[in-house]
Amino acid sequence: MSTLADGREAYAQRRWPDAVGQYTAADHDAELPASDLEQLATSVILTGRGSEGVDILARAHLKYLADGDYPAAARSAAWTGMNLILLGEPARSAGWLARAHRIVDDLPEPCPFEGLLYIPAGLGALYQGDGAAAAEAFTRAADLGRARGDADAAALGTLGLGQAKIMLDQFDDGLALLDEAMVAVTVGEISPIPAGIIYCAVIETCHLAFDLQRAHEWTRALDRWCDGQQNLVAFSGQCQMHRAQLYRLHGAWTEAIDAAKTALDLAFRGDRMATYGGFYEQGEIHRLRGDFDAAEASYLRAEETGFPPQPGLALLRLAQGKPDQAQSLLRHAMDGVGPDYRRPMLAARVEIELAAGDALAARAAMEELASLCVSIDMPMVHALADQSQAAVLFHEGDPKAALVPLRRAWSGWLSLDAPFEAARCRALLARLCAALGDEESARLEREAARAVFSELGAAPELSGLEVPAAPDARTAPPPTTRDAAHHAADAGPLTARETEVVRLVSAGLSNRNIAAELFISEKTVARHLSNIFTKLGLTSRAAVTAYAYQHGLA
For residues 179 and 348, what is the distance between their CA atoms, to the nearest angstrom? Predict the structure, then answer.
């Protein structure tokens, strides 16, 4: 009995390998009770052995049936089916879900776990792009879960309803529902597997909705959740995949490639859902650094998972000097996909259509992206839309008109701490200045972009910084970058990111820990600190901490 008690204790403490060992030893002595078999299955799945865990869960189901506990048998059948969905076995999944439905239908009383049965239907509708049908199924799941006390079904239904509303362009309502689902996770109401599903789905949806603030917040929370569990494999790879996305955006490319490699290691150990993202993020960094062969290999490995590696592969073709191939790839990828997957490809579509010479298609994509700013009022959407508008206007021969949206884009990327995109704006600004006859401003902008590209190792962008010939332009020269920087700083002495650094310094974090918390490099943390010292006239971390307490930032 002590072995069984030890297994239960290890499970409660989230020591998954210990739980597997103790429960397995106890199971050798005498068959485990159904509830312990279910916990053994969960522990096995969380250590990355999904197929083995599903088999044990099936044993738990049969034991529940033998014991006459039909509601628990229905629940275990439903979870067997949903785990098989995650394992990519739809036929077996359908069989188990049908069994769960039959058991529920045969019960004389309402089943406490009936809400779970609506989750797969909602997922199927989401995958088919039918937001209305998904919303209906997930609403039913959430309502039944709340009415019958099944916190897992209530939270998963709330999550799915949020995703469906975002698909239907109801962004504020959808994001609020995601937060509600996450509250249930963070207060400990949810079982381990649905908790991991909710974490990863929320973060993925935040990226699709361009909500970087939420993506940062929930990725940090997922990181802590994963670290709090012994040898957790399931969901840990996806956590590293999301970390890689954020590191890439913030210019911490070495950290991004390391996170992507870790994601793939965990994917091969059992977190299959991290496979695509791990390879795709590797491909992105290789492409940005100019290692095109490695990028192609990574994108093709990502494609083997069944998802098109876009817009990365199309942008690779563009960087290789093949705009027609890039155009064909991206157009094919965007045909017939839902709006949630179409939106992240629009900015690349503008860039590629311009390079391929289809100005009308570029303008159409730019206008579609600009229209998103009404429904998705997120800084990243505005920055992408402004940058795309500037590129289109310049291509159409109106460099003066392009200046205003380009400056807004540059300021937006700076506020998001996205150095690569900010530098791309400065490179384009150099071209605009040259077209308008302001060669000195063009030189300054070009050199500023060159410095960032050099530090990042962005070889393709560096090679594209040749001095363009200045056309005959009789338009007045634009305001200088110094003027734009002045406007960007109007909001106060510190930027939003610098304020975050001050808060973390005051909490006693080292530069390394601050970098991990904000998904930036240590070098970037040091740069932020230098700016903070200069702006505030301070010379030490202790003085920064005092400032934080004086101004309510600690």
Answer: 30
Half-sphere exposure of residue 357: CA atoms within 13 angstroms, side-chain side: 4
In sequence order, what are the beta bridge partners of 230? 15
Total residue count of the chain as it appears in this document: 554
Q: What is the pLDDT of residue 466?
A: 63
- Rounded percentage of the chain residues whose pLDDT exceeds 90: 87
Distances (CA, A) of 83 to 49, 80, 87, 89, 354: 11, 5, 6, 9, 44
> For the domain 237-309, what is the CATH code?
1.25.40.10
CA–centroid distance for 319 within its chain: 25
Distance (Å, whole) CA 271 – CA 200: 12
Give the integer Cα–Cα distance in Å for 492 and 185.
36
Contact 142, 116 (CB under 8 A): no
| Residue 393 CA from chain centroid, whole number | 31
* CB environment 47-72: b (16+ within 10 A), e (fewer): bbbbeebbebbbbbbebbbeeeebbb
Tokens for 493, please give them.
């002495």
Phi (first) and psi of residue 195, to 5 degrees? -60, -45
- According to DSSP, the residues that pair with 15 across neighbouring strands are 230
Report pLDDT for 475: 38
Q: Where are the alpha helices (DSSP H) in 68-130?
A: 70-86, 90-106, 118-127
Query: pLDDT below 50 — which residues of the chain?
Result: 467-492
Domain locations along the chain:
237-309, 310-358, 378-488, 496-550
Task: Describe the crossing of helices 151-167 and 118-127 by its angle, rounded to 10 degrees.
Answer: 20
Spatial separation of the C-alpha atoms in residues 242 and 226, rounded to whole Å: 13
311 with 344: CB under 8 angstroms? yes
**Signed CA dihedral, 242, 247, 249, 253: sign only:** negative
Which helix (H) or strand (E) covers residue 377, if one does? none
Residue 71: predicted pLDDT: 97
CATH code: domain 496-550 is 1.10.10.10
Instruction: Give exposure, 494-512, as e/b (b: 16+ Cβ within 10 Å).
Output: bbebbbbbbbbbbeebebe
The whole-number pLDDT of residue 483 equals 42
- First-to-last alpha carbon distance for the chain, in angstroms, is 50
27: Cβ contacts below 8 Å, ≥ 6 apart: 37, 40
For residue 230, the SS3 value is strand
Tell me the H-state helices in 271-345: 275-289, 292-303, 312-319, 323-334, 339-342
Cβ atoms of 471 and 507 within 8 Å: the answer is: no
pLDDT the model gives residue 495: 86
DSSP assignment letter at 117: G
How high is the pLDDT of residue 175? 95
Residue 340 CA to chain centroid, in angstroms? Answer: 13
H or E element at residue 164: helix 151-167
Query: Which tokens is 252 given?
Result: 């911490």
